[in-house]
Design brief:
The structure holds 2 protein chains of 2 kinds.
Chain A lengths: L19 H8 L8 E8 L6 E11 L2 E11 L2 H4 L9 H11 L9 E5 L2 H4 L3 E5 L11 H12 L4 H13 L18 H16 L5 H12 L8 E3 L8 E4 L2 E5 L6 E3 L1 H8 L17 E2 L3 E2 H12 L5 H27 L6 H5 L4 H16 L1
Antiparallel strand pairs in A: 1-2, 2-3, 3-5, 4-5, 6-9, 7-8, 10-11
Chain B lengths: L5 H19 L5 H55 L8 H18 L6 H22 L4 H25 L10
Classes of the chains: A alpha+beta, B mainly alpha.
Chain lengths: 366, 177
């Protein structure tokens, strides 16, 4: 593994070439004649893009202005074409732009740049939103989410339902780069896509997952309509500030799909924080809201019937997607494409996810 | 030589990485701290794997052999029921299941004794592939029969995943809802 220059976070080889000086140059002329950049901070929690936030200061109409901004840039691996389960960065930006008109809290979109000569790869700049994304695998943060559910006001659970309902008001055909897929092709498209990734990534034969794939094909639900789906909707991809949901992030897996996919995905035990041991409140999706309440509230707010069998299907499928993404990371580590230690670690999420899949499909297979 | 138990060495390394190296880094070095956290956790898991793998594999083998016996017995019962009803096996699906069961038993008995990391991996692959071949053959049968034949094999799948979770440190036998 290369040694890292720990003295200057801006030259960490895990991040792209987005520098304070470069940003000052780029934004000068866009925000004001001279822009200063301060408080540069790398956000390394994510897996795909390089994400940085900065405070930009400039003068406009004689008045000092400042705003905190977020820069999302292609990682080195993405620039080299070595990575990508998700959409390209321009589609991610266009998706967020399309979401501006929907009743969902999303950072305001400012600029997309496709010239690689600026920072080595493509990037976009959006509004910085206050808050932090809860980590459900941290027992302390799970407790905060339990408190949010136990609070009679249920402010955060309420806003969580509103967020996903708002996402499903976005028409996928309004987003450049998102393929329009007819409703009767959605399930096959999903299975084909993720099975091909799994086949490439799987290091051994797992008969439980072969059974799961047979179950997915044999029990494919009828999907009555498509909307934009977030594709990675969970509490870990929203910003929370106090009791409030302040923004929905990480739109790279957005696509045309069954809106119930997002509900099933958010309902997995994994995203509630289960890894090896069972969690304290397994009845809560995302450790935040009881599943039946979630589905009932979604129904009453959207007018869509939430078919519980379809939710079960997508819940099992989401577990399969998650372990497939993990195994793909394992493959990249094993083949030397990535030396990110987290990728090696991700093999350990697989047994818990298999356990959950078996629990969901057993009644139809035995 | 070696005199130290490898799982204990890994556990000590894990604690050193987590409690000393990681904690010595400034909090703003979040990427490196994350890498070290994952490294410490991985070493801990690897230690568990070293100590428990042989036992887990033995459990899996016993569970699969029992499952194959139960599935074979159920297949025979189904055959008798169909015979009594005057039905045959025109598509040969039941025969395919019988062959898959027979091959599975042969492969398990011919599998290497796990005495090294390589033979352990090889033995595990024999078990999982054998199970999968039988499950795949069952899929062509009518649903009612397929369910009955799969049930014992799902017991093997449970044993396998339970063993994997125990290798990773799970103490509680019960799963989630």
């Amino acid at each position: 593994m290369d040694s890292f220059d720990c003295s200057d976070a801006r030259t960490n080889p895990a991040m792209s070439d987005v520098t304070s000086d470069g940003l000052a140059n780029y934004l000068s002329g866009r925000l004001g004649p001279e822009v200063e950049i301060a408080d540069y901070r790398e956000h390394v929690e994510g897996w795909s893009r390089d994400t940085i936030s900065v405070t930009a200061s400039w003068t406009a109409e004689g008045q000092p202005r400042s705003e905190r901004l977020v820069v999302r840039a292609e990682s080195d691996a993405q620039i080299e074409g070595r990575e990508g389960q998700g959409n390209d960065i321009e589609t991610e930006f266009r998706t967020m732009a399309a979401a501006q008109d929907a009743p969902v809290v999303v950072p305001e979109t400012y600029w997309y740049e496709d010239d690689p000569n600026v920072f080595g790869g493509r990037f976009f700049i959006v509004e910085y939103l206050d808050g932090s994304a809860p980590v459900t695998w941290d027992p302390r943060e799970r407790t905060d989410l339990y408190d949010a559910w136990d609070d009679p006001d249920r402010t955060l659970p309420d806003q969580f339902v509103d967020a996903v309902a708002g996402i499903h008001e976005i028409d996928p055909t309004d987003v450049d780069g998102i393929d329009d897929v007819p409703a009767d092709r959605i399930v096959d498209r999903e299975i084909d896509r993720w099975e091909s990734v799994y086949r490439r990534a799987a290091p051994v034969t797992e008969p439980a997952l072969e059974e799961a794939l047979r179950w997915f094909r044999a029990n494919a639900p009828e999907v009555p309509e498509t909307t934009l789906v977030h594709g990675d909707f969970r509490i870990g991809n929203v910003l929370v500030d106090g009791d409030d949901l302040t923004g929905v992030l990480d739109w790279e897996l957005a696509r045309a799909g069954d809106p119930l996919y997002d509900l099933g995905y958010a309902s997995t035990n994994y995203f509630a924080g289960k890894l090896i041991e069972p969690i304290e409140r397994p009845e809560l999706a995302c450790s935040l809201l009881e599943r039946e309440w979630f589905y009932d509230e979604y129904e009453s707010r959207t007018g869509r019937a939430v078919d519980r069998d379809r939710i079960r299907y997508w819940r099992a499928f989401a577990a399969f997607v998650m372990l497939t993404i993990g195994l793909d990371g394992v493959r990249r580590f094993d083949e030397g494409i990535s030396d990110d230690v987290r990728s090696a670690w991700f093999q350990y999420i697989v047994p818990g996810l298999i356990e959950d899949i078996l629990a969901l499909i057993r009644e139809d297979r035995t | 030589m070696p005199y130290l138990r490898p799982d204990r060495v890994l556990s000590k390394f894990s604690r050193f990485v987590s409690d000393d190296v990681r904690e010595a880094l400034p909090s703003e070095e979040r990427f490196l701290r994350g890498q070290l956290g994952s490294m410490a956790s991985t070493m801990e898991f690897l230690g568990g794997e070293l100590t428990g793998k042989a036992h887990a594999l033995g459990e899996q083998e016993a569970a699969l052999e029992a499952a194959l016996d139960e599935t074979a017995a159920e297949l025979e019962t189904i055959g008798s029921e169909l015979e009594s009803a005057g039905e045959t096996d025109p598509d040969g699906h039941r025969e395919s299941v019988e062959m898959a069961l027979s091959k599975a038993r042969d492969r398990i008995s011919d599998a290497p004794v796990p005495q090294s990391p390589e033979t352990t991996i090889e033995k595990e692959a024999v078990l999982t592939n054998a199970c999968e071949n039988v499950l795949a053959s069952i899929d062509d049968l009518p649903d009612e029969h397929a369910r009955r034949l799969r049930k014992p094999l799902f017991g093997f799948l449970d044993t396998r995943v339970d063993g994997q979770l125990r290798l990773l440190g799970r103490e509680d036998e019960s799963g989630d809802e």
